[in-house]
Amino acid sequence: MGARRTGPYFCGIDAAMDVVGGKWKSLILWELAERGVRRFGELRRGLPGISEKMLIQQLRELEEDGVVAREIYREVPPRVEYRLTESGAALNAALEPLGAWGRRRIERIGADRVHV
Questions:
Q1: 75-93 as b/e: b if 16+ CB within 10 A
Q2: At what angle do helices 12-20 and 23-35 cross, to 10 degrees?
Q3: Region label for 2, one of left (φ > 0), alpha (ψ between -120 and 50) or beta (otherwise)
Q4: Helix 12-20 to helix 86-109 angle, to the nearest 10 degrees?
Q5: Reported pTM
Q6: Is the model's pLDDT at 1 over the cut of 50?
Q7: Tens digits of residue pLDDT in 98-111
Q8: I need a labelling partner for 103 at 20 to 30 A (CA). Which of 38, 77, 92, 114 fits?
Q9: With contact defined as beta carbons under 8 Å apart, do 19 and 64 qualify?
């Protein structure tokens, strides 16, 4: 696993963006918040366009940052599930106003939306 990011940071926004930076992390958080506990394949299907490699990398980083928990079930075949932690749910709630701003922007500029 990679090294946990620990700053230094200029401000709280800097520290938060270190955790959710990039296109996929916030979408993974949204998918887990909207649909609850998900298996890897379910996450991948819910996020069209993400590669398997990218999803693995992003999930590992989110887990290292304590916002996503991974549970492995010792079955044959093994089952792995992902869910938001308490910290992840709080982060997702903090992102909600940004999502509302983005929805208004979509309407304002007439952008297309991805439908899954």
A1: eeeeeebbebbeebeebbe
A2: 80
A3: beta
A4: 90
A5: 0.86
A6: no
A7: 989 999 998 899 98
A8: 38
A9: no
Q: Which residues pair with 22 in a beta bridge?
A: none
Q: How far apart are CA 74 and CA 87, in angstroms?
A: 26
Angle between helices 23-35 and 86-109 (to 10 degrees): 110
Q: What angle do CA 70, 1, 17 make, to 5 degrees?
A: 80
| Gyration radius (Cα) of the chain, Å | 15
DSSP structure string for 39-57 = EHHHHHHHSTT--HHHHHH
> Is the Cα dihedral 97, 98, 103, 108 positive or negative?
positive
Joined tokens for residue 83: 């869910």
H helix or E strand, kind and range, residue 83: strand 79-84
CA atoms within 13 A on the CB side of 31: 22
In this model, does residue 3 exceed pLDDT 60?
no
Token pair 């949204």 in the structure block, residue: 30
* Rounded CA separation 77/44 (Å): 18
